[in-house]
Write a structure and sequence with these properties.
The structure is a single chain. The protein is an alpha/beta fold and about 450 residues long. It folds into two domains: about 1-210 and about 405-440, Aldehyde Dehydrogenase, Chain A, domain 1; about 215-395, 3-Layer(aba) Sandwich (Aldehyde Dehydrogenase, Chain A, domain 2), CATH 3.40.309.10. It is about 40% helix and about 15% strand. The N and C termini lie far apart (about 50 Å).
């Protein structure tokens, strides 16, 4: 770790000298990041295919294009984000200058997840650059090919005095966390999140933990069958279900289920053909560990659609489970795979009660043409994000803050932020600007 200690010292010196602070420098680094994506697009698509069998279309919209849009948005808004904000004064401070000035934290650590290995490493980086931080990047070792490529490319495009990449697995990450950082941004699971929060507490380091959870999807009697089936299939099996905001399970009546299952089956044929395994648009499970975990979950309830597996290819067919009980294994953990359990409820009130007796989700989805149903569920539940008659699209709008509540996402930062709410777009996805309130007497 001696070499890393030297790299960290180099980043600290660069930050102390103010190298990363100027708006011009921030914009130049964001431009370099866009060049990295554009000049290496084909290679990035190739490694994403190797790691996740990710289709070109999916990789472009959810990985490469996503990061580029964030970078462009940041460049367009940096000047307004850094502008000093003058505040309302009292009689006592009438002759004073009272303002809020936004400053970067310092040297931030970004630890990314494997499910979207480009997006989840580089999107937080966009916000960190926009806020004027220096950054240590830790790509996920699980998406091995993407991690190796990004570890090679980032030093070629970004300023080496301000940005560094550190590779390795859990052992190396624990060693990394022994060092003091000024901010830590982690995307992944709650077990690792606890390790990171404990390490951060040793240095009183502010942390963003972007975790996950089980995202409910309530389908009311008033739902539109065709659009619900299409949007549900897209959300559940996008990236082979390996997405933190995918619908995790469905709550609906038996009558709705009888209409929905055949519609999903028909929609799957439309999306992936008769044999999803042969479709260029259907991915694979990231590794054997997750394949084995998901295969065990197939024993919950009854398989209504799919269920086929191929361990050698790490293939699990798009699967729908019915007759699922709340106590079944598939309901005890985030699925994070192409398996959709359906639990029957007799009413909206029963669905609300079911949602509220579990951990608050990262996202909650409702399908209903009856606006009273949508509004009542919105009012009587709590979640990081909420969509009616849609799913996952909340992530695409960078003017919305992104985050969860409690175990689905823990935010520890300056007191002006409220559980991932009311943040600037840069802050919503990255180590954000520390806010100091300064008062100057005339």
């Amino acid at each position: 770790m001696t070499s890393f200690a030297e790299s960290l010292l180099r980043l600290r010196n660069a930050f102390a000298c103010g190298k990363s602070h100027s708006v011009e420098f921030r914009i130049s680094q964001l431009q370099s990041l866009i060049r990295l994506l554009e000049e290496n697009e084909a290679t990035l698509l190739n490694v994403l295919d190797q790691d996740l069998h990710k289709s070109k279309f999916e990789a472009m919209i959810a990985e490469i294009g996503f990061v580029k849009n964030e970078a462009i948005s940041a460049m367009n808004n940096i000047k307004s984000w850094v502008t000093v904000e003058f505040v309302e004064k009292t009689f006592v401070t009438k002759l004073d200058q009272c303002f809020i000035r936004k400053e970067p934290f310092g040297v931030a650590l970004i630890i990314a997840a494997w499910s979207h290995p480009v997006q989840l490493l580089l999107t937080p980086l966009v916000g960190a650059i926009a806020a004027g931080n220096c950054v240590v990047l830790k790509p996920s070792e699980v998406s091995v090919n993407t991690a190796a490529l990004l570890s090679k490319l980032i030093p070629q495009y970004l300023d080496k005095d301000c940005f560094a990449v550190y590779s390795g697995g859990p052992v190396e990450t624990r060693k990394l966390l022994q060092y003091k950082f000024d901010y830590i941004f982690y995307t992944g699971n709650s077990a690792v999140g606890k390790v990171i929060m404990k390490a951060a507490a040793e240095h009183l380091t502010p942390v963003t933990l972007e975790l996950g959870g089980k995202n409910p999807c309530y389908i009311d009697q008033s739902f539109n069958l065709e659009s619900t089936a299409q949007r549900l299939v897209w959300g559940c099996f996008f990236n082979t279900g390996q997405c933190c905001i995918s619908p995790d399970y469905v709550l609906c009546s038996k009558e709705v289920q009888e209409q929905l299952v055949p519609a999903i089956k028909q929609c799957l044929k439309k999306f992936y053909g008769e044999e999803p395994k042969e479709s260029a648009d259907y991915g694979r499970i990231i590794n054997d560990h997750h394949f084995n975990r998901l295969q065990k979950l197939l024993n919950s309830g009854q398989v209504a659609i799919g269920g086929e597996t191929d361990k050698q290819d790490r293939y699990i067919a798009p699967t729908v489970l019915v007759d699922v009980m709340e106590s079944d294994a598939v309901m005890q953990q985030e699925v994070f795979g192409p398996i959709l359990p359906i639990i029957n409820v007799n009413s909206m009130e029963e669905a609300i009660a079911f949602i509220n007796r579990h951990q608050k989700p990262l996202a909650l989805y409702v399908y209903a043409t009856n606006t009273k149903v949508v509004n009542e569920i919105l009012e009587k539940t709590s979640s990081g994000g909420f969509c009616s008659n849609e799913n996952m699209v909340q992530l695409t709008l960078n003017t919305l803050p992104f985050g969860g509540i409690g175990k689905s996402s823990t935010w520890c930062s300056d007191p002006y932020n409220r559980v991932g709410k009311a943040q600037t777009p840069a802050a919503a996805c990255a180590p954000h600007s520390l806010i100091h309130t300064l008062s100057q007497i005339h």
